[in-house]
Amino acid sequence: MSNFQGEVLAELVRNGLVESVHAGHLVALAADGSVTISKGDTSLPIFPRSTVKSLQASAMVRSGLKLPPKLLALAASSHSGSKMHIDAVLEILAGAGLKESDLQNATDKPLGDSERLHWGSQAPTRLAMNCSGKHAAMLATCVIYGWDTKTYLELGHPLQQAILKEIESLSNQRVANTTFDGCGAPLFAISTIGLAQAVRAITISVDPVHQEVLAACRQYPEMVAGEGRLTTRMMQGVPGLFMKDGAEGVNIASMPDGRTLVFKISDGSLRSFGVIIQAVLKGWGITTPEEKVNVYGGAEVVGGIRAVL
């Protein structure tokens, strides 16, 4: 396997035979920050995608954003697009004297399976897109600070520079690549170990800004993702857990004492997430909701996905 592919993190087994593998890069940190598990090349730059939304939200709060915890959790979310989520996005916008047309994120149908089904043949909208909470909060921050709302997605915009500073400060790394995320917001590449250091740092931080953001996410896990989604299930099932998924197979999780897990699945798929997270947390002595993935031969279970750590 090439350096980029990393090491096998999970195997799909059918009747005792490994049928498929998911490779990638994974690091687990102990409470004191020491590395307890390292797989693949954790120094390679990756795009952390939506896993850094708590860092982005922290930069917004630091720049004056004031939201109640439920709406702040939405600012750090990849929401499912339920009515509850969409109403909350509109509430953030209205609070800043803004409307849906001020959003500049990409359009999409809801991310959640049931929400997308319910959406049916309606056209994609900016509101339904899973990053609309983040974008509404970005706009609200601009209004509070007096920054231009028309150019809030430009790399040189003061808000995006504040976010860059937050990411580099927490990860203790310079970003390796700068581009744009699927939603249209600037996206900064750091390594898997750098992302882990940032997640651990924000988790154990005594900075009131960091504490406010993470407390909001833990209090309202249904806003961070949505009903039935892995991130929400895990945070509801494990007291104190902070977790965030990202596109192209990136995931972060941490406990209040600083224990941290970060991984990137090289093929970009999400199906092994639950078993990997469950395996690492089991090693930490933490019982999680059951995340078994069955493999079927007809109606019979003939195998499953297992973590390789």
Description of the molecule:
There is one protein chain. The protein is an alpha+beta fold. It has one domain. It has 11 helices and 11 strands. The strands form 2 sheets. Strands 1, 2, 3, 7, 8, 9, 10 and 11 form an 8-stranded antiparallel beta sheet that branches. A hairpin with a 5-residue loop joins strand 2 and strand 3 (35-39). Helix 1 (53-62) packs parallel to helix 5 (132-145) and helix 1 packs across helix 6 (158-171). The radius of gyration is 19 Å and the shape is globular. The chain starts with 6 loop residues before the first strand and ends with a strand. 48% of the residues are buried.
Looking at this protein, list some descriptive labels.
alpha+beta; globular; 309 residues; three-stranded antiparallel β-sheet; 11 strands; 11 helices; eight-stranded antiparallel β-sheet; single chain
How far is the N terminus from the C terminus?
17 Å
Question: Any idea what the radius of gyration is?
Answer: 19 Å
Mean pLDDT: 97
**Sheet having the most strands:** 8 strands, antiparallel
Tell me the number of structural domains.
1
Report the count of strand segments.
11
Bin the strand percentage.
15-25%
Series of H and E elements: EEEEHHHHHHEEHHHHEEEHEE
User: Which regions have little confidence, pLDDT < 50, spanning 5+ residues?
Assistant: none
Question: What overall form do the CA principal axes indicate?
Answer: globular
DSSP helix fraction: 25-40%
Number of helices: 11
